[in-house]
Structures are given as structure tokens and as C-alpha cells.
User: What shape does this take?
Amino acid sequence: MGRAPCCDKANVKRGPWSPEEDATLKSYLQIHGTGGNWIALPTKAGLRRCGKSCRLRWLNYLRPDIKHGGFTEEEDNIICTLYVQMGSKWSAIASQLPGRTDNDVKNYWNTKLKRKLMAGKVCHKKLNDNDTLPSTTLLTQKAQSLDFHASQNQNSMPNLSTDACSEFNIDEKNMGFGLIHQFYSPQVKDVVKEVGASSRNNNHNHNPLMSLSQEGSSISDSSSIAVENNCVLLPEHAGNHESAEQVLMDFGFEFPYDLTNNLNCHERFGEFSPSGYSEWVDFSYVDIKPHLLNKN
DNA sequence: AACGGTTCCAACCGCTCGATC
DNA sequence: GGATCGAGCGGTTGGAACCGT
Assistant: This one.
């Protein structure tokens, strides 16, 4: 048996709020507050609305401190930074933006900011066609030398150096997207490879660059992308290709692509790591290595 | 002007979590 | 300890507004 509905859906009004309803809710809340019970509020206020609907209307629209209108560039950067750090924790992100609601931030991200980011207008440097991509061979060697897919000390990961940050004109706050976009280039759009990384399962590194959601979520430990030889590598998704697809689309790769195209995948398979993929244990970590390595 | 496609955002849905009994 | 409930959250949807042809 499911849980009881919060209201009698047949007898509540749905859809857009009228100015009269807005005024009723606003004046009631200004006088009485929520009383700690949104469910009972509509009855008390004389509204034929669900309590949840009242709450949402108040929090997202009627609150006096709500900021309406366009986002500033500074807000854009804050959202980008926090999204990288936390993932889609919209309420947490919104809490850092006075006057903005989680719904606002979420809508803004989904409709504008993500695209703006892809177009190269926010906190990153986009590669030109002839820019040099990092060497996978070097990555592999470095990975092996660090032995980071062994059961090592979780705190042994090196931090991204200040030099590495400054090299690409990024700061530590926007590092995640900066690096991802560092890799984002027209030359890598056409072939996508999902890579098995089963040994990652035994290697829960607490990489300071990995977002909280990446560490905690079943889907988002994939949000890092490494690139070599015109290929994009994604960690395995425990059979969940949709998650991988979403990650790719989030980062601007066009759909359809060759995630499930076995022919292309195999053709490309040997190009970047003939010995297999155990080296690509932690893609969030791989994110930063090219820059560290290039400094060596 | 009319139409179709796209964008944007308010609102809803369903889930999780914590509090309470 | 389990059931129930409300609050809060993220994902999704519907439709109005906008834009291009």
C-alpha cells in the first residue's frame, strides 16, 4: 500500500496561480507564518490548493527576498563552480546565491548556463583544433608509477599544483569544468568509448577534485572525461548506458554517438591503451594528471 | 499574418529523510 | 523498531512566450 496522498487531489486547484491566490497566500503567511505545517495551511488560509503547491509558490515566487530577472556573470561562475563540486544539489547551490531559489538555479542551468558553458563563455578555456592533447602513454606510465589502483593510502593523491592551475588560466574553484573543457575540442566529438574500469571499484579514492556527488552517487562517478587520440573515455556505468549518455550530453557531445557502436569502439580500442584499462582506474583523477605530467 | 519549432520557467510528481508516535 | 507523516529535494512536464521562416 502506498502512502496516503497529502491532499484530496480531486478538490484542489492545480495549474497557474491567480493574483488573488497569490495575495491570499502572501497576506496569510505575512500574518501567521507557516505554522510549521504546510499541509494544513491552505485550509486555514482559505485556499483550494495543495499544501505542497502553497509551499512551492511561496518559496519560489512570493517570498519577499526573491530575486527575479537575469543572472549575473558572477552568479554564473558560482553556479558552475558549485555544480562541479556538488553536482545537481540545487538547493545547496541556491543557498550560496542570495535571492535565488533551487528551482531558479536548476532551470537556469538546464536552459541556459549549460549551453553557455558549452559555448565557451564561462570559466574555462576551450581548445583550438591544433592544440595538443595530453598523452595517454604518459598518463599510463604515471598511473603505474603511482600505483594508484592498488589498495593504497587514500590520502596519497597529489593535489593539483598551483602551477598546473595557472598554466591553463584557471583557478581551483573552477578547475573541474576548466579541465573538462580543456579537453573539449571538435576533434574529439565523433568517437566515444566506454571503458571498463572494474578495478576502480576497489579504489575509492578521496580525490579532492571529485565532487561530493561523484563520491556518493551511483551515477555521477562518471563525470570526468579523459581524451586521447580523438577518443573520449568514460568509466563503466555498471551497465547503465543511459547515465553515460547523459554525462556525454551534459558535456556537449552530440547524440547519437558511438557509445554503443561496437565496431567503432573496437576499432579505436587499441589506440590508446593496448594493455587494457586498469590504468584508467579513477577518471576524476585522470582529469588532472595531464597537467601535472606536462609539468614534469 | 500564420505557422511551426524552440526556449523558458512555473508547477507538479514522486522520492527520501527525519521527526514523531 | 516500525509505521506514519510532513518537509524538502531533484527530475520532469505543460504551456506561454518568443523566434524564424
Notes: The beta strands of chain A are 191-194, 226-228, 231-234. Residues 14-17, 50, 52-53, 56-57, 60-61, 103-104, 107-108, 110-112 of chain A lie near DNA strand B (CB under 10 Å from a C1'). Residues 197 and 280 of chain A are 7 Å apart (CA to CA). The mean pLDDT of chain A is 51.
